[in-house]
Amino acid sequence: MIRVPRRAITEHERFFLKKVTTFKDSPLYGCLKDYEKEILRKLTTTDETSLWARDMMDRIICMPKDYIEGWLAGRNSLGYRECDKRMLAAYYGGFLELQEKYPYFDIHKISSNMLPVYESYNYVVLGRNKKEKAVFVGKLADGEIFPCDAITPAAM
User: How far is CA 44 from CA 10, 39, 47, 49, 53, in A?
Assistant: First the structure.
């Protein structure tokens, strides 16, 4: 028998596995573990099933825990909502913590020389990354209603 060496786990897969382990105390954990196994198995294929697996990983990574539990219980679909699209963009852009802090904001990572342009469109500075010379700007996303008890960048 020829042994095939296991491939290294990517950072994306590691983040996915970490999210799944947050359900350890949930009664639906076993069901999610079954999905995890199927997703990881299909991720190694070279056809459209690997695209499905990557998409499912993205959905589970970006959606809140209660929404995923609702999906596992059959109360909703795992379809993308606008806030989930923002979370996924933040994950890939490397500013997930900032998006979690300002979930109602449309956030962009820009170079500091583009700041005047974004400010002219009413974006505010939410953070800076001096190492990359990047600025994180945001404004209330289209269609979002800002809750009264939420923290605003101006209140910081």
Answer: 12, 9, 9, 9, 9
Whole-angstrom distance, CA of residue 15 vs CA of residue 97:
13
For residue 110, the cross-strand partners are: 135
- The two structure tokens encoding residue 93: 């852009």
Residue position matching structure tokens 């933040």: 90
Q: Please name the amino acid found at residue 146.
A: F
For residue 58, what is the DSSP state? H
pLDDT digits (tens, 9 = 90+) for 17-49: 999 999 999 999 999 999 999 999 888 877 788
Under 8 Å between Cβ of 60 and 20? yes
> pTM for the whole thing?
0.62
| Token pair of 37 as six digits | 């196994």
Pairwise CA distance, residues 117 & 108, whole Å? 13
Sign of CA dihedral 96, 105, 62, 50: negative
